[in-house]
Amino acid sequence: MQAFIELRSFIASSELQSFSAAARNLGLTPSAVSKHIRKLEDELGVRLFARSTRKIVLTDQGQLFLELCRQPTLDLMEAGKTITETLAEPSGQIRVSCTTDYGRVRIIPLLGQFMQQYPKVECELILTDTISDLISENYDLSIRVGSRLADSAFISRKLSGFELATCASPEYLEKYGKPKSIEDMQSHQCITIRLPRTGKMLSWEFVRRGEQVVFTPNNFISTNDPEALRIMALNHVGIIQTGSYGVEKDIKEGRLIQLFKNNAAKHWAAYVIYPSKESLSLKVRCFIDFLASNIC
């Protein structure tokens, strides 16, 4: 099995471009991973990585070796994992980063059910609207929302889709009138999200005749918290645009009225992001599968 461990170290190092990151991913020390790579290079008689002080890069021979050995190694890992999982019960801690509003509305209500189903698993949920570094911040997975994900070396799995709901309270609309068009909202009090990383206001998105329409309100109150956005709308302050998952109950029960539903942007989704399939532990795999099965 020593050769198998060396191959796992090689594959993880090539994907993460760092012996230290590969070590964290595999639960080894950086010196152990480096030792495995050196031994593999000695056995093959080639250099697999070009090393620098900042990162490692596959050599041509290393790239060829990765292409030849990766899938057979992953198949062997999957076979071993399947056998082990038939005997094992998920246990240990899962560290999860999640977008604040989506975590409050969709993830937290499911945690009790998950803990009943897997009583030996401990879950640490960090709600944040900043993009987390899974490796350096030691997260097992991250849950993000958006119209698309930035290119990443990580694996992503879609949990659910949703539309952007533009809405206001009946009291606000009775007092100020219902906007007749998207552009008509320029004369209304619009409440927007200010992005915490850039300080920019989040523009509103619509679809009209199959084309994307971007609307930037002139008159606005801003906040960094989607829940504050919802509370202000419920208190008749103005019009908001937010993920439909956060206001669907308010709309259904008449506390908010959705505007321009036929023009709602529907290409947004929530995704779970994790480093790699081959290093996915049983507890994390069970958590991801649970979310995918229970989030609608």
Topology record:
Elements: H1 2-16, H2 19-26, H3 30-44, E1 49-51, E2 56-58, H4 60-87, E3 92-98, H5 100-117, E4 121-127, E5 141-146, E6 155-162, E7 164-168, H6 170-176, E8 190-193, E9 204-208, E10 211-215, E11 220-223, H7 226-234, E12 239-243, H8 244-252, E13 257-259, E14 268-274, H9 282-294
Helix pairs in contact: 1-2, 1-3, 1-4, 2-3
Structure description:
It is a single chain. The two termini are 42 Å apart. 29% of the residues are buried. The protein is of the alpha/beta class and 296 residues long. It has helices spanning 2-16, 19-26, 30-44, 60-87, 100-117, 170-176, 226-234, 244-252, 282-294; strands at 49-51, 56-58, 92-98, 121-127, 141-146, 155-162, 164-168, 190-193, 204-208, 211-215, 220-223, 239-243, 257-259, 268-274. The protein has a five-stranded mixed beta sheet with strand order 4-3-5-14-6, covered by helices on one side. Helix 1 packs across helix 2 (19-26) and helix 1 packs across helix 3 (30-44). InterPro entries: LysR-type_TF_proteobact-type, LysR_HTH_N, LysR_subst-bd, WH-like_DNA-bd_sf, WH_DNA-bd_sf. Belongs to the LysR transcriptional regulatory family. Keywords: DNA-binding, Transcription, Transcription regulation. It holds the Pfam family LysR_substrate.
Instruction: State the helicity in percent bands.
Output: 40-55%
Total beta strand runs: 14
Please state roughly what percent of the residues sit in beta strands, choosing from under 5%, 5-15%, 15-25%, 25-35%, 35-45% or over 45%: 15-25%
User: What is the CATH domain class of the largest domain?
Assistant: Alpha Beta
Pfam families: HTH_1 (PF00126), LysR_substrate (PF03466)
Keywords: DNA-binding, Transcription, Transcription regulation
Domain HTH lysR-type: 1-59
Family: Belongs to the LysR transcriptional regulatory family.
